[in-house]
Design a protein that fits this description.
The chain contains 5 helices and 8 strands. The chain is α/β, with parallel strands linked by helices. Helix 3 crosses helix 4 and helix 3 runs antiparallel to helix 5. The longest helix has 14 residues.
């Protein structure tokens, strides 16, 4: 008898669960040295806990560790910054930061109980170079918006031209080029430069 087709089900979250002999010690390690945030700790003494990195939550449960049979891969937004943080925090680096053939730049560490954790960032420059020719386009931008753009380009390690090209190409596909942390940084830049208008503000610009 043929199997029925599986239902179309979305999955917005996943929670890897790792067994650890000391939940409190594991939470302390994951928060102070790996850079996660404590979400909850249950039991007295603790026997279950959750730690967060962005929208991903890892469960730590009381039990016998099995690091040879488990590993976790995290796709993050700023792998260089977290790699430096882990190095400065004395975390054991198993594999250094490497551009991988599968389109991510990643590295691996070992946690307090021997679990291998890999952190990677999409390498959007993977693939063959695209030969182009650039032209000068007369562009005039609102002063505060131009200042924000310069700061954002510097943060991303890109030129202003490349940042504009990236934004334009994403917009044409109905998407945005910025990660959650970059969007949070943009909000800080808006406050820094006194940008008090929203995305529709350009329709009401009146140049002096």
């Amino acid at each position: 008898m043929p199997h029925a087709s599986p239902p179309a089900v979305d999955c917005d979250q996943q929670h890897p669960t790792l067994a650890v002999p000391d939940v409190r010690a594991a939470v302390d390690f994951w928060t102070t040295q790996l850079g996660f945030r404590e979400a909850f700790v249950s039991g007295d003494p603790p026997d279950f806990a959750g730690v967060n990195l962005g929208n991903v939550q890892v469960f730590l449960t009381l039990g016998t560790p099995n690091p040879t049979g488990s590993s976790v891969y995290f796709v993050i937004s700023d792998v260089q910054a977290l790699y430096k943080f882990h190095g400065d925090a004395g975390v054991t680096i198993v594999e250094g930061l490497t551009d991988q053939p599968y389109g991510l730049r990643d590295y691996s560490v070992r946690d307090l109980n021997g679990y291998v954790l890999t952190f990677g960032q999409h390498s959007f420059n993977a693939g063959p170079p695209i030969e182009i020719e650039r032209v000068d386009v007369p562009v005039r931008l609102e002063t505060r918006l131009a200042a924000l753009l310069a700061d954002l380009a510097a943060k991303k390690g890109m030129s202003i031209s490349s940042t504009l090209e990236e934004t334009l190409l994403h917009t044409m596909e109905g998407a945005g080029p910025h990660t959650r942390s970059q969007l949070e940084y943009i909000q800080q830049l808006k406050a820094k430069h006194g940008i008090d208008y929203d995305s529709h503000g350009s329709y009401r610009f009146l140049e002096r």
